[in-house]
TrEMBL record:
InterPro entries: Amidohydro-rel, Metal_Hydrolase, Metallo-dep_Lactonases. It comes from Streptomyces castrisilvae. This is Amidohydrolase family protein. It comes from the Bacteria. PANTHER family: AMIDOHYDROLASE, AMIDOHYDROLASE-RELATED DOMAIN-CONTAINING PROTEIN. Gene3D superfamilies: Metal-dependent hydrolases. Residues 8-284 form the Amidohydrolase-related domain. Belongs to the metallo-dependent hydrolases superfamily.
Length: 285
């Protein structure tokens, strides 16, 4: 019997509401997420799906969260990388990154992220203090994850052009308007971002951008196809976005759908999307 290909989940979260509120979980639509989601909850779902390693991603812009995530990774056989948060605009950002590396689990720090999608300034990424912080991320040998909305993609492209030494990973394909069935201007802006060699994309988060009750793989195919064509398999990585994905699909459904969407790729290309791109880009152990 042929062994199942390795799978790396390049994007998931955990949180404990007794430790810290997740203030973004508001309204009836997100109500199912207002509970604890821990590695103990994730591990059986991930193992059943054949996942061998994961990247744990920050959820709140609180400095204390990153050491907590690193400590979780340090005690886990599943979490191979952490994308944390630190204030990019702080004058001592370089020192902060060095200090994080010295903490328990600090060797698992692979990148930083900020909720750019919540910034009212569409050009937030181009602020001089932000660009200085992004340069410090690059100097530290870390990756920067981008969680942006479609209208913020042009600024992301300009930032990537200004910082050729920084690898920028676009989360959730830039959150295209799947539920509305629209591809433009998202597709053109995504292709402009992908045209730069220091950009990477996650095939993640699409099920929750679609109609969460009625979505199908066919609804996602135009967006996944654009991403595959723009970035190519060697700059594309699978992410579950667990537990947020649970608003629309189970863990296994998300992975099975990703496999369907990349079904026309050859074995090497599928392996890239499902494992080797994430391992290379994040330098996972």
């Amino acid at each position: 019997m042929t062994a199942r290909p390795r799978v790396v989940d390049a994007h998931h979260h955990v949180w404990d509401l007794a430790v810290r509120d997740q203030d973004w979980i508001t309204g009836e639509e997100l109500a199912p997420l207002r509970r604890d989601f821990t590695l103990a909850d994730l591990e059986p779902e991930a193992r059943t799906a054949g996942v061998c390693a994961t990247v744990l991603v920050q959820t709140v812009t609180v400095a204390e969260e990153t050491p907590e995530l690193l400590a979780l990774a340090d005690g886990s056989d599943l979490v191979s990388g952490v994308v944390g948060w630190s204030d990019l605009t702080a004058p001592d950002i370089a020192d902060t990154l060095a200090a994080l590396r010295e903490l328990p689990g600090g060797d698992r720090l692979v990148g930083l992220r900020h909720q750019v999608q919540g910034e009212p300034d569409p050009d937030w990424l181009l602020r001089p203090d932000v660009l200085r912080g992004l340069a410090a991320v690059a100097d530290a040998g870390l990756v920067y994850d981008l969680v942006v909305l479609p209208h913020q993609l042009p600024a992301a492209t300009r930032a990537a052009a200004l910082l050729p030494g920084l690898v920028l990973v676009l989360d959730h394909a830039g959150k295209p308007p799947v539920a509305a069935g629209l591809t433009h201007p998202w597709a053109d802006d995504l292709r402009a971002f992908a045209a730069l060699p220091n950009t990477v994309c996650k095939l993640s988060g699409l099920v929750t951008e679609a109609d969460r009750r009625t979505w199908s793989a066919a609804d996602l195919r135009p967006y996944a196809g654009t991403v595959i064509d723009a970035f190519g398999p060697d700059r594309l990585m699978f992410g579950s976005d667990w537990p947020v994905c649970r608003l629309a699909a189970t863990y296994t459904e998300v992975l099975d759908t990703a496999r369907t969407l990349i079904g026309e790729l050859d074995d090497h290309e599928r392996d890239a999307v499902l494992a080797t791109t994430a391992e290379r880009v994040y330098g996972l152990r």
